[in-house]
Design a protein that fits this description.
The chain is α/β, with parallel strands linked by helices. It has 9 helices and 23 strands. α3 crosses α4 and α6 runs parallel beside α7.
């Protein structure tokens, strides 16, 4: 991860002088006991709609964000909404309209005849027909100036200088996102890859990388899957909740790729068989991540490097003029981030490949020779020798090595969820 961020914001939260890695939920439970359960699971950020909502999260030690319809421009309602909450101590960040670019370019409602039916063909945005180009350009000319003016209003009214965040769809258009980018501090996308017939969890790492590029180096928050597609009214699919292992893989893969916040969408729609156990698995994960807050807010130790040592495998053949058929070898997929707080260290390893890695080497640890690292939530202990930590990894495995087990959460319920 590159710790040098463009723009003014760094993507982290500040509460009582302490930096926090955002662990958030879009869901805002009406029931006090359910909201308390979130807080006890390490969740520190919840989407709020009013001062009363912010009062509730503050009473539990959490913070909230407020969504603003800045795409509608400067309005009396927007000003009143901002002024009603701007001085609340639990307000952490502002959010713009969700997936704003997606909604006037590739949204399915644009071609579905039972919805807006603006476009003629399914997926017409990707055909780049004259119709979709004209429609999107017209909408952008209307929306972008509104967003610019409205966000400037937010800046003028918010003397606390809070960060402004917009979440987009995974494939939202680069050209249009760049038209509002200079006005926001945090970017990122939502990505919900788990379905019964396709469980490509490590796709979220690629999405994180894309949004680091789309955002020109701004901090990225990733919104991950807190539901089964069968929970949503518009989708008639088989029940397929992410397992605990898949949710854990997605969260740590995003972090290893540089995400500065992890949030969950869709949990307010949970209703399919097994949803209670799935929710418990999410809270088991947020509890685990919350126990690592001091590491997640620390800079990356960039001199630590990961490599895979084993026989190479053929991946593709690229013709070359001077030697047709040269074989190109790609780097094997283990991602890593190393952090420290005081004399304690944390090394996160994510095997993005669906294959065993028999030789994973973390190098650059010369000052740690003789130090023991324990595998959190596991039995493995590795001693650093010759500046190296060496281990093996199963397909799509996550390994979290630390210098002490004190970084484990006591919460174990939900870790065996495998629906």
């Amino acid at each position: 991860m590159n710790d040098y961020f463009r723009g003014q914001g760094d993507g982290l939260l500040t509460k009582a002088g302490r930096r926090l890695f955002p662990l958030g939920f879009y869901e805002f439970p009406k029931d006090d006991a359910q909201l308390k359960a979130m807080a006890e699971a390490g969740v520190n950020l919840v989407r709020c709609g009013s001062k009363e909502d912010l009062d509730r999260v503050k009473s539990l030690g959490m913070m909230g964000w407020i969504s603003l319809a800045v795409h509608s421009g400067v309005t009396d309602n927007l000003r009143k909404q901002i002024e009603s909450v701007v001085d609340h101590p639990a307000l952490a960040v502002w959010e713009g309209p969700d997936e704003v670019v997606w909604n006037f370019t590739a949204w399915s409602h644009l071609w579905r005849k039972d919805r807006l039916g603006v476009f003629e063909h399914e997926g017409e945005w990707w055909m780049q027909t004259p119709l979709v180009i004209e429609y999107s350009e017209t909408k952008a000319k209307e929306i972008m100036p509104n967003m610019h003016a409205a966000i400037q209003l937010v800046r003028s009214l918010d003397k606390h200088n809070r960060q402004f965040w917009i979440n987009e769809a995974r494939d939202s258009d680069l050209k249009f996102v760049r038209q509002y980018l200079d006005y926001v501090d945090i970017t990122g996308c939502d990505d919900y890859p788990i379905r019964r017939d396709n469980r490509d969890a490590v796709r979220v790492g690629t999405s994180t990388e894309r949004w680091k590029q789309v955002g020109s180096g701004r901090p990225v928050w990733m919104v991950l899957q807190g539901f089964s597609w069968s929970d949503l009214e518009e989708h008639d699919r088989a029940v397929a909740y992410p397992t605990f292992a898949e949710s854990r893989l997605m969260a740590y893969d995003c972090i290893a790729h540089g995400a500065r916040g992890i949030l969950y969408w869709g949990s307010s729609y949970l209703k399919s068989p097994g949803f209670e156990a799935f929710r418990e698995s999410l809270y088991a994960l947020t509890s685990e991540l919350a126990a690592l807050q001091l590491f997640l807010t620390a800079p990356e130790e960039r001199y630590a490097q990961v490599g895979v040592i084993e026989r190479r495998r053929r991946t593709e053949t690229v013709p070359k003029a001077e030697n047709l058929g040269d074989t190109v070898y790609t780097e094997l997929g283990v991602r890593m981030t190393a952090r420290r707080t005081g004399r304690d260290w944390l090394i996160i390893l994510v095997n993005e490949d669906n294959k065993i890695q028999m030789g994973v080497e973390v190098s650059g640890l010369d000052d740690l020779n003789g130090m023991d690292f324990v595998l959190l939530y596991g039995d493995e202990t590795v001693t650093v020798k010759r500046g190296e930590l060496v281990t093996r990894m199963m397909p799509h495995e996550v390994k979290i090595f630390a210098t002490s087990r004190k970084w484990e959460t006591d919460r174990r319920k939900g870790r065996d969820f495998a629906k």
